[in-house]
């Protein structure tokens, strides 16, 4: 579905994305690439209902596909509703000839991430004037092995219950919380083995799934 928006704000974000210092092997760079502005031309042109009606009359009177009018357009995917829980899934495979190959390189990710550079300027559940949408890391899933076999383990932060986050999940009420990482102890879980680990150990893992909870 293509929604009509104010052309002046259609491609605007809550925070300036061009000021991001996004290293290539980082989650910021991944998000920047995923939400970049794209130009649709040639075979990717957009079907324009307004242009079609202007040239051919009402759409339901058009009997031939050749009469539809397609036009060049710009497209950008941005977050329009900041979720209480942010889940980021990293694509850890690539095409190698006729086979799929696992991507093993480390992708840097922070303990606190600001989603504002990737949110639309009219993000529905962000207070007017806010230029930050902060999230705190609380879980990581890591995969070791190959595309054919391997083992999943997890890093989880044990922390106190967040009543403000519960209100946000259950009732959609957004309140300003802390801007620092949620305090707690990290644990590494592998099948039945659980052991405490440092946050530096967590941040050095080869993340496959990242779980963040809303702070601000």
From TrEMBL:
It comes from the Eukaryota. It comes from Brachypodius melanocephalos (black-headed bulbul). This is UBP16 hydrolase. InterPro entries: Papain-like_cys_pep_sf, Peptidase_C19, Peptidase_C19_UCH, USP, USP_CS. GO terms for biological process: protein deubiquitination. The keyword Transit peptide does not apply. GO terms for cellular component: cytosol; nucleus. The keyword Nuclease does not apply. GO terms for molecular function: cysteine-type deubiquitinase activity. Residues 1-215 form the USP domain. The gene is Usp16_1. Keywords: Hydrolase. PANTHER family: UBIQUITIN CARBOXYL-TERMINAL HYDROLASE.
